[in-house]
Structure to design on (362 residues):
């Protein structure tokens, strides 16, 4: 049975445990402040679990996830386990398995851009960039029929199929419009309807869904143009609604815009508010055990968890405002440090600063 107050905490490998510790500090603060009664249980995942139990997602970890309201995930992987067969390796056997097992059909990646970090010239981002990339995660090109074949001359070939059903598009589009309603009320739907039949269906279905959201504006854009606009003029965009494969690429382009992996959270959502929340980055092998990793992506992932799985906008906004304040003050971990006028801090100190700002904001 589900415990509606339980979060499964899976720190994983590399910097996972270090940044997770800071996120749990932040959770402890909001839990006490808002009397949320949230419980957490920690379990092993990834390489750490392979060493202890012989598999990346032991039964006890999966059972914990099953009875929880949400999963707060760190990161998994590492060269130690690279020689295992692909299906046994930490990422495939734990993270990808969980996405599939819980039918997490939507991936959300918010992306705000700090002027001193973005690779774009200041004049291109002076009006601010605040995007929410909404990627369909369980359909499309990555899940269509695939195979190898030979033509009549005996030449070897291979194929993948891009296939969408109306229901899959309706589900992700509805989520995108609901999110836009709480933001700048604008959805940009990305497709390639000029060449791909499945994308004509995508466009028609998104249009139909938009009729239920007349307060939200909708525009359609071809993926190649969107990719260019993100470099030339990203400010006017709000929610980007993407098919799986296009979203995979554009969400990393958004990550590039923001300048550091250490800042980017993500949420993978299923039905009934269940979700898996994790930083966009990996185990950062170069930073492990050095108190140098940026914990903000993990802390921001926690705020997404509170917003989408616990529907607690207040607690989520408090965390997000505190993160913004810390960055505005020029407090930076190494990955964000661009000028001597800023204050360089470690992983633990960054977590403490976020808690301090939350105390001030309350
Ligand atoms: P990575 O994200 O671990 O590192 C890429 C770069 O980003 C490094 O320079 C790293 O220091 C930096 N970085 C990442 N997170 C950071 C943070 N929080 N603060 C500061 N800097 C940060 O990606 P990689 O090097 O391609 O992969 C290393 C390992 O991580 C591989 O074993 C890979 O399989 C695994 N990985 C796991 C996940 C996941 O668990 N979701 C995602 C990506 C990679």
């Amino acid at each position: 049975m589900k415990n509606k107050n339980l979060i499964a905490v899976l720190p994983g490998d590399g910097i996972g445990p270090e940044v997770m510790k800071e996120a749990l500090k932040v959770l402890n603060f909001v839990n006490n402040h808002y009397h949320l009664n949230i419980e957490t249980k920690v379990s092993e995942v990834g390489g750490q679990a392979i060493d202890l139990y012989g598999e990346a997602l032991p039964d006890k970890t999966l059972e914990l996830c099953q009875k929880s309201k949400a999963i707060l995930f760190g990161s998994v992987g590492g060269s130690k386990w690279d020689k295992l067969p692909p299906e046994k390796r930490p990422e495939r056997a734990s993270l990808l398995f969980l996405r599939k097992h819980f039918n997490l059909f939507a991936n959300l990646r918010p992306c705000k851009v700090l002027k001193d970090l973005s690779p774009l010239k200041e004049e291109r981002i002076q009006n601010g960039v605040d995007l929410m990339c909404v990627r369909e995660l369980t359909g499309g090109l990555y899940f269509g029929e695939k195979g190898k074949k030979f033509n009549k001359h005996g030449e070897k070939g291979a194929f993948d199929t891009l296939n969408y059903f109306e229901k899959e598009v309706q589900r992700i589009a509805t989520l995108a419009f609901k999110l836009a309603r709480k933001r700048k009320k604008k959805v940009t739907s990305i497709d390639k309807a000029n060449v791909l039949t499945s994308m004509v269906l995508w466009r028609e279905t998104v249009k139909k869904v938009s009729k239920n959201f007349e307060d939200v504006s909708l525009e359609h854009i071809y993926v190649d143009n969107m990719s260019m606009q993100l470099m030339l003029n990203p400010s006017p965009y709000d929610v980007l609604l993407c098919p799986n494969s296009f979203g995979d690429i554009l969400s990393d382009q958004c990550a590039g815009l923001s300048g550091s992996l250490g800042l980017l959270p993500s949420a993978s959502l299923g039905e009934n508010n269940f979700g898996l929340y994790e930083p966009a980055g990996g185990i950062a092998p170069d930073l492990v055990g050095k108190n140098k990793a940026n914990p903000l992506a993990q802390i921001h992932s926690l705020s997404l968890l509170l917003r989408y799985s616990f529907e607690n906008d207040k607690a989520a906004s408090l965390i997000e405002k505190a993160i913004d304040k810390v960055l505005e003050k020029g407090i930076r971990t190494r990955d964000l440090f661009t000028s001597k006028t800023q204050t360089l801090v470690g992983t633990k100190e960054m977590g403490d600063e976020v808690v301090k700002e939350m105390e001030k904001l309350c």
Observations:
- The mean pLDDT is 95.
- The chain has two domains: 1-108+261-362, 118-258.
- Residues 116 and 338 are 7 Å apart (CA to CA).
